[in-house]
Amino acid sequence: MCKKILAGNWKMNTTIEQGISLVAALIAGEKEIPAHVQVVVVPPFTHLHIVHQYLKNHGIMIGAQNCAAHAKGAYTGEVSAEMLASVSCQYVIIGHSERREYYGENAQILNQKLAQALRVGLTPIFCVGERLEEREAGSYFAVIASQLRETVAMLNPSDFSKVVIAYEPVWAIGTGKTATAEQAQEVHAFIRKTLAESFGILAAQTSILYGGSCKPSNAAELFAQNDIDGGLIGGASLSAEDFLAIARAF
Ligand code: PEP
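Above: inputs. Below: predicted complex with phosphoenolpyruvate.
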C-alpha cells in the first residue's frame, strides 16, 4: 500500500511569528490527524530551523520548497540539499509549476536537484502537471508523460523508490478551480501506468499526491480515489483549521 501523505506548501507566506502560530495550532490539533497519514509542513527556508524546534517531538515532518542544483559553493542566494538535511528537513518539493514557470527550471535543472536531494537522503516531492491550454487541447497525457520520462523515469529503481509524485494541474493551482475527482484519478492512474513502464511493481508503491485548490469541501472525494495517495496543499495549508480538516478527510 502507498504511504498516505498530506503536505502543506506555505509558499512565500508568513512571517516567523505567523509561521510559529500556524505550527502551534497544528500541534494543538495533531490528535485529529489519522494515524496512517504523514503530515508534512513546507514553510519558507527562513522558518525551517525554528519550525523543527517546535515539531521535533511530534509526528509532523518538515519539508523545503526547493533546493539548489549544486552541492555547495559560489551560488549566491541558493540553499543546498545538505543544508536542508542539516535542519532536519525530510522532504523537498522539486519541479513545482511556479519554479518551472517563473524561474525557468527545466528537466536538466530538475534532474540535478533530484540528484542533490537523493544524495543527502531527502524525499523529493516531484511535481508534474499540464497548463490550461494543454488540458483544453487534450495533450495533457503527452505533456505529463514527457515531464516524467525526462526526469524521474531516468532514476535508478533504488532512488526512484524514494520519490513522491505530485500531480498539480497548473490551471487548478491557486485558482479555486479543482480538478474533479474523476479528472484527477484519470491522470493519477496514467502517471502510475507510465511509471510502471520504467519501474514495474515499484510504481504501485509510489505515493502520488494531488494538488490544486484542494480544500476541506473536496478533499474526501479526491482522497477516496484509487490512485490518489494524498495531497499537496497550497492556500488551504495556511489555515490550521482547514489543513487539519483536510487531514481528517483521509
Ligand atoms: C500548490 O501550489 O502546490 C497548490 C496546490 O496550491 P493551491 O492549493 O493553493 O492551489
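The pocket of phosphoenolpyruvate is lined by residues 9, 168, 173-174, 211-214, 232-236 (CB under 6 Å).
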